[in-house]
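Bumping with the actual sequence this time:
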Amino acid sequence: MNQGAEKKEQVAAWTADTKVVSKHAMELKQLDNGVIIPPSGWKCQKCDKTDNLWLNLTDGSILCGRRNWDGTGGNNHAVNHYNATGYPLAVKLGTITADLEAADVYSYDEDASVIDPLLARHLQHFGIDFSSLQKTEMTTAERELDQNTNFDWNRIQESGQEVEPLFGPGYTGLVNLGNSCYLAATMQVMFSTRGFCQRYYSNQSLKEAFGTAPADPTVDLNMQLTKLAHGLLSGKYSIPATKKDDAGDAAQTTLTAKQEGIPPRMFKSVIAAKHPEFSTMRQQDALEFFLHLIDQVERINIGSPTFDPSRSFKFGIEERLQCPSGKVAYNRRHDYILSLNIPLHKATNKNELEDFRKLKAEKDARG
């Protein structure tokens, strides 16, 4: 799969379960105000921005998008226009091509990227020949995926300073596949334990795992865990990344202070196969993924429990229940996690917590 097709597939997975037809699309009111949009040379009507521009599909206004948390992006003129007029739909200029399904349409009223089945008609109202336009900007989904994949964690560290890069065995990073930090964090912890290191690295070579795998090693979890363990622990991939020169000459490269890491795509495909949540590109809970992983590791080692590394996480719990009558009962079970009750009344950020609850209640009330 080439890089372009792979990126397209990731974006499709990112948006497939969230993008729906807008409730405004089929009966959208468009003003007969004589506005004709040129094929290029766009600029925000309120400022000098020439990128991140949105065309309001009701009155043809061209305005800049939202300002991002870090100060980049637009100046909020498009959303401010919606707040003043109530005109709900806008399409991002620079994402309109002959493939209208890929155009970025946003509904301010529904606060989401949406589908407009009548987008061709809505664009023609303003004289736009979409068949001749070329893509020049990322869609909202592509930008979200790009920011998740290439996020610079130094920007949110308390010190705000660059950390010293480390290289060698045990210092290999996992590439963010887009909202896959839950997987990366969990697997780094798993392979810091003796049980997982011995089972899939010290006591099993890649050749041995390949030899014991079924007909297709690409769908064998034991093979993929071994492959991931050797990638993380061997140090083979924990080396400074190379950077091509400005002309793209592969022969003229320099070493950078960062490593490329390894992308766990095949492992994610196997461990998440047929799972309704982990098979998507959405953010997930690390604890839920940990329990899913433990369950799958137990299954593949059911015939040889002595080799099961998940046993190192298992412990016994005995619960004592006493009735008012004085009778006592004991309940014993095995578990992998120990829940800790957090007294919310002792929280030091009660005001922020209350604001969050009010905001969540308001959103739930709006549906």
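The tokens above came from a reply further down the thread. The CA atoms of residues 38 and 276 lie 44 Å apart.
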